[in-house]
Amino acid sequence: MADTYQTQTAGSQWLGRAVLYALLVVFAVYYLMPLFVMVTTSVKTLDDIRAGNLIALPQEISFAAWFKAWGTACIGVECNGLKGNFLNSVSFVVPAVLISTLVGAFNGYVLTMWRFRGSDVLFTMLLLGCFIPFQVILLPMAQTLGYLGIANSIPGLIFVHVVYGLAFTTLFFRNFYVTVPSDLTKAARIDGAGFFTIFWRIILPLSPAIIVVSVIWQFTQIWNDFLFGVVFSSGDRQPITVALNNLVNTSTGVKEYNVDMSAAIIAGLPTLFVYIVAGKYFLRGLTAGAVKG
Amino acid sequence: MSTLSIINVKKRYGPVEVLKGINIDVEDGEFLILVGPSGCGKSTLLNMIAGLDTISSGEIAIGGRVVNDLSPKDRDIAMVFQSYALYPNMTVRNNISFGLKIRKIPKDQQEETVNRVAKLLQIEALLDRMPSQLSGGQRQRVAMGRALARDPALFLFDEPLSNLDAKLRVEMRAEIKLLHERLDATIVYVTHDQIEAMTLGDRIAVMKGGEVHQLASPQQVYDDPADLFVAGFIGSPPMNLIRASVASKEGKIGVDLHDGGETFFLAAPDAVQSGLSAWNGREVIVGIRPEQITDDMARGPERTDRVKRNVKVDVVHPTGPDTLVLIQLNDTPVTCRVHPETRVRSGDTADLMFDLSKLVFFDPDKETRIR
Lengths: 293, 371
What we know:
Radius of gyration of chain A: 25 Å
CATH topology of the largest domain in chain B: Rossmann fold
Structural class of chain A: mainly alpha
Number of helices of chain A: 13
Structural class of chain B: alpha+beta
Shape of chain A: flat
CATH architecture of the largest domain in chain A: Orthogonal Bundle
Oligomer: heterodimer
Shape of chain B: elongated
Strand order of the largest sheet of chain B: 6-7-8-3-9-10
Number of strands of chain A: 0
Strand content of chain A: under 5%
Number of strands of chain B: 21
Number of domains of chain A: 2
Largest sheet of chain B: 6 strands, mixed
Number of domains of chain B: 2
């Protein structure tokens, strides 16, 4: 009796596993399919694309489309590829991410460790900033940028993204620092540390995990942003997302699907890179904390 | 010279007055305990001594210098926190020397101090570990080391043993006491644990509702409580507080008690006779410690201020060194402490000896002592 019972459970367990893995494989394939199509299409030749079907493997692998997308594809009337716009994006995304993260950390520190009259009201107002749609701030922001004299420039884009991102980064850091015991700041004050010393020497070294969260979030948001890019920049100052759109929509001659696909992958690679690199640190930070208790 | 003097210090948060005029003087080398239930203002007071919180009015002076407007770092104090508050990103060594580093003490002097403190607290082997690798007791030692490294005029302890388990707490308590005696340090120590208060303090300030109810030596607080609150708060098991009416018998003033049956009379000590006579015929609250109701076998010579009564026993709690016996007096449960070898059984009656020399009486409305 006991044996039969055991075999039965073992059998149904095996079946359950099989169903589970089958489902997982189906979903994985479903989600990987677009990437597969993009990558294969980007290394096909145009003839190959016209001859075969969407999911067929390439006859021969050619990176010509990648080089074209990077260096010589026409966007509008200029035929310099995406490289300039890629560098544009890097040049404003990196400072915007760093500034918004650092200022967010500082805000969080003040809002938790140095509460002042009205600090909770201020935090609530900052929190509301998370819910303001992009479109709402376009006109006032355009005016502000003009007033500050940084309209249609990289500093202007940095400014827009820092301001818009602060609500989120402040929220991240504030909620993280709430869990840090306030005795820590008290001890440091008695030890003689001042406002900034406590921030740099005590609080910031506690924060790698939340910094990574903030960096991933901000990098993805800002790199992928299209609306601010298209509104607040033009011509050779445009970010890669806008350039990608223009490249795909430039209607001269034949539609080069392989170039479009390469360009799209190029535009998406940095966020992928940030996820892979920082995500590892993120996990490492989490587990280190867990082990240390 | 007093190291710390607190003069009429008040603290208000909006309309709420959390400290209602505190006056305390702490002598050089003294160990002062602030004890009270949660919300009594003891931690607030400590934070104000430390300068982590501002005072609404009054004056705090450390070493003869008024520190009302000085920031914590300039007050010549060090503090040990309940949560230890060790810097998690620094080694034990750096935790201890952080304050010295901030104060720009020369490197070799820092090292010397760290080594001296580590030796004193026996944490030399832990110096290069991170706080997260230490046990609760070790963290507490490091936190004390950080305070000791600074060699301040005044040490502040904010419930430092509350997060430790019972056994470790007793060990650390002994160690803090030893440390105090060896260093001759001036300490203000906040706790809600009245045993800690009794064992550690030179003097105890019993606080409630933002006021100091009594400031005296542990024994005085125990034997001679200033009011009903102190009487009920200090002592474990607590003092028995029984409502009883004042009567006179054979020219003596005392109280009438009953255990459900016949009424009996307990005469008040001589010192209270005149004070209590004003209450003749009215109700008061009588305070009697559990160890003052004990068995026949009780040690000590025959005395006239003892009364033997046969009373009904409700419950018996053996604790090891003593047996606690619960009886009813004037319909109030009363704890008595008897010798463990005395055979007392629940539901039976027992002969119990009432020691009348330390009876205390309280005004039932104002809760003040009747003297």
